[in-house]
Design goal:
single chain; 238 residues; alpha/beta; 8 helices; 48% helix; 17% strand
Length: 238
């Protein structure tokens, strides 16, 4: 039985992905801040789920918590980082921006570094992280969220370079969703909103195929391409 950790498994994509991994014979360590939600999930499949409650923004405790969970699992083949936050913040409330940075930048980095170092030490492993199509360009409505996702995308690219340089079977997958029907998909008149089950299945297949970068759902590649080619002068006036 393969061993996986899903960071941010209490709800949304992380929760559904944990369920899918367990259904495909993974033993899964599920983490998050909301203990009751994790315990409820564990109760649905106690043989495959192990609970660890912690907050990745508590940077000092991340290595210890992840090591303890890995030891309890009996090893680690895959870690999926699905923990993140984002808010519309047109007034540039600094407290809101720093809350986003604490999780999406500092917490992300702590988990990513611990995971990569473990995989390099053991000689194999797969790190997958939920970023966002938002990381392609900036946004006046949610500057920190879009910028933090750009940070994640570039950080993962750096880790893929490091993995290639090690010549070890270490894989890094950047998962870039558009709108998925979860609590994160806030706002009105959203389009191409994918059911979480459909999105999660595509994520699982991307992980199994060891993809470098994948857009969820697949048609969001069209939007990504348009974002890339949109002239700066037009984007500036959006």
């Amino acid at each position: 039985m393969k061993k996986a950790i899903v960071v941010g498994a209490s709800s949304g994509i992380g929760q559904q992905l944990a369920v899918l991994l367990a259904a495909n014979d993974y033993k899964v360590g599920i983490t998050g801040r909301r203990d009751q939600l994790l315990l409820n999930l564990q109760a649905t499949n106690p043989e495959h789920f192990i609970v660890s409650v912690f907050d990745v923004t508590d940077i000092a405790t991340v290595p210890l918590q992840l090591k303890q969970l890995t030891d309890e699992l009996g090893g680690l083949d895959l870690l999926v980082l699905s923990s993140g936050t984002g808010k519309i913040n047109p007034t540039l409330d600094t407290a809101v921006e720093q809350e986003i940075n604490a999780l999406n930048v500092a917490g992300f980095t702590a988990v990513a570094n611990w995971t990569f170092n473990l995989f390099q030490k053991q000689g194999f492993g797969h790190f997958a992280a939920i970023t966002s199509i938002a990381g392609i360009r900036g946004s006046r409505q949610a500057p920190a969220y879009f910028a933090s996702k750009a940070y994640q995308i570039n950080y993962l690219e750096g880790l893929r370079q490091k993995a290639k340089n090690t010549k070890l079977p270490i894989y890094v997958t950047d998962i870039r969703p558009g709108f998925v029907d979860t609590a994160m998909a806030a706002g009105e008149n959203l389009f191409w909103v994918a059911p979480v089950e459909k999105a999660t299945l595509q994520i699982y297949k991307a992980i199994e195929n060891k993809r470098d970068v994948v857009y969820i759902t697949k048609r969001w590649r069209i939007i990504a391409f348009l974002f890339w080619i949109l002239p700066k002068t037009i984007h500036k006036n959006l």
